[in-house]
Design goal:
By secondary structure, the chain is α+β, with helices and mostly antiparallel strands. It has helices at about 5-10, 20-40, 60-65, 135-140, 200-205, 245-250, 255-265, 270-280, 300-310, 365-385, 440, 445-455, and strands at about 15-20, 50, 75-85, 90, 100, 125-135, 145-150, 155-160, 170-175, 215-220, 245, 320-325, 330-335, 395-400, 410-415, 420-425, 470-475, 490-495. Strands 2, 3, 4, 5, 6 and 7 form a six-stranded antiparallel beta sheet that branches. The chain has a five-stranded antiparallel beta sheet with strand order 9-8-16-15-14, with helices on both faces. Strands 1-12-13 form a three-stranded antiparallel beta sheet, with no helix packed on it. The two termini are about 40 Å apart.
Length: about 525
């Protein structure tokens, strides 16, 4: 539209070649949809029938066919309750066929907040409900005619699948149903990223003298926000403290206090510069609450920023269009603008070498620091908040994110060659529930997609750049591992920064007493920020 105008777009006969992969798109829509339904099933508070019809005589199928379907229900099947008992309900469809809804396929639903003790407590003859065929496991158990009771979830979300090396977008799911809402939550929704922003803080630390083994104090502190303002007393998600632990733990366990201390020490001006360099948050104020994800951004910006972690620090430009041709087949637009002197269909081949296309993308970070972040984000999956992905059978890394009161839940996960980002929350932000974290809400969506999309793709390890030394260290104190150490880990260090036999702990705010951590006039907004 921007390039050719409305008339050119709709009347010009243009042919657009997109980056989308249809199978990935199908799997992404399915995974996000299942994640939204899964969350809704845990509460089911708005459960009510679509309509009520007369099932007397033999005309119920015709009456059911006249029921107006609610918007957003296109993936479900309408069915009428023909009979209801303790353990199951018999349902009928518009073609006259029947099926059953067993108790275990409807017990999630609640009437006036009460879990039904029997099927007939909620499903009454003549009521019209949304249904969905049960899965293959139920068919294997002889429930081939079983159906789920369904409803349109209130919660929404977005999902993006991207090539982190080129920025080509393979799939986008902008919500539960396009028919119900054309608002694209993957590219348009401005939400708080929560702890999914933390890797950019730790990258800033790496670029300013820290290593993944540097000890940072996970201890309480208070910040004075200025005259007339309450003091800010940030907390970790579980309200516990680990004391001085290696930087890696701050990412793996998503420790708020460690992140804030690090941001305070290196300076929020540097964290803001990192966010701007990676394009993840626009116009971020230099407030400490921003270090734990209190700013607003989009899922598209976050996955684009994470792409640079995977590709060694190259800046990518996300795109859904590879090229455009006019009505005569002439290429009039190409997204990839890299120069290639010896390319072209009319160049004769006479044993010359294959043309080498220059990589003109800006280098926005040191590849060695990028690998250190990737290595720590692998730890999130191996030992931290993304552990649900541990059994996926391939190297995978990522970071969860949850904001105050669980209003926003995130997970951005990646393998060496594909990146998947998910955000889930209510359009009108409100708490999703006490334990509804990115780990519980968003990670399963990424896992479902990756297991299906990559099942036939051989696993490959993350690429280690030149200048990195992998050193076995003590997992608890960050020192070089010694014979007899029970907990060790292979850590990535920039050559020359390897640890010795004594712990490395930075001074300043991280180990200062509480009184020294109080800064007048910081202006941090209490109550904001990522938690888990």
């Amino acid at each position: 539209m921007e390039l050719y105008g409305e008339k050119g777009l709709y009347e010009g006969g243009l042919i657009a070649e997109t980056t989308m992969v249809p199978e990935y798109q199908r799997l992404a829509e399915k995974a996000l949809r299942n994640g939204l339904i899964g969350y809704d099933d845990r509460y089911g508070l708005h459960s009510k029938p679509v309509a009520h019809i007369d099932i007397g005589g033999n005309q119920w199928a015709a009456a059911l066919g006249k029921v107006v379907r609610p918007r957003g229900s296109e993936s479900f099947t309408v069915a009428v309750i023909l009979d209801s008992g303790d353990k199951k309900a018999v349902i009928g469809f518009t073609d006259g066929s029947t099926g059953v809804i067993p108790y275990d396929k409807m017990k999630w639903a609640r009437s006036n907040g009460v879990t039904p003790a029997r099927v007939s407590d909620l499903l009454h003859p003549g009521d019209v409900w949304l249904t969905e065929p049960a899965n293959e496991k139920d068919a294997a158990k002889g429930k081939e005619n079983a159906y789920w009771l369904r409803q349109i979830p209130n919660v929404e979300g977005g999902m993006i699948v991207m090539d982190p090396h080129t920025g080509r977008i393979f799939a986008v799911a902008g919500g539960f149903s396009y028919d119900m809402s054309q608002f694209d939550r993957a590219t348009q929704a401005q939400r708080q990223p929560g702890s999914s922003f933390k890797p950019f803080v730790y990258l800033t630390g790496l670029e300013n003298g820290f290593t993944p083994a540097t000890l940072i104090a996970d201890e309480p502190f208070v910040i004075d926000q200025g005259p007339g303002q309450a003091r800010w007393n940030p907390q970790n998600y579980h309200g516990d403290y680990l004391g001085p632990v290696p930087m890696r733990v701050g990412i793996e366990k998503s420790r708020n206090l460690m992140t804030i201390r690090l941001a305070s020490y290196v300076g929020m001006d540097k964290v803001v510069a990192t966010a701007k360099r990676f394009g993840v948050v626009d116009d971020m104020p230099p407030l400490l609450s921003m270090s734990i994800g209190a700013g607003e951004t989009t899922l598209l910006k976050m996955v684009t920023g994470y792409s640079s972690f995977v590709n060694g620090g190259k800046k990518v430009t996300p795109t859904m269009i590879d090229r455009v041709q006019d009505r005569n087949g002439k290429t009039i637009y190409v997204h990839d603008q890299r120069p290639c002197q010896d390319c072209g269909s009319l160049i004769a081949w006479s044993s010359q070498p294959t043309p080498e296309i220059a990589d003109t993308r800006p280098q926005i970070a040191d590849p060695r620091n990028m690998y250190q972040i990737v290595s720590m984000l692998e730890g999130v999956v191996q030992r931290g908040t993304g552990v649900l992905l541990k059994d996926i059978g391939r190297p995978v890394a990522g970071k969860t994110g949850t904001t105050n009161d669980s209003k926003d839940t995130w997970f951005i996960g990646f393998t060496p060659d594909i990146l998947v980002g998910v955000y889930i929350g209510f359009d009108d932000p409100k708490p999703m529930g006490e334990k509804e974290t990115g780990s519980r809400v968003a990670v399963p969506v990424v896992k479902e997609f990756m297991q299906a999309a990559l099942k036939d793709v051989p696993p490959v390890p993350f690429r280690v750049p030149d200048g990195i030394r992998l050193v076995q260290i003590n997992e608890d104190n960050g020192t070089r591992a010694k014979p007899g150490d029970e907990k060790t880990i292979l850590e990535a260090f920039v050559e020359g920064s390897e640890p010795g036999s004594e712990p490395t702990m930075f001074t300043g705010h991280s180990v200062a007493p509480v009184s020294d951590l109080t800064h007048a006039g910081e202006g941090v907004d209490a109550g904001l920020g990522g938690l888990y």
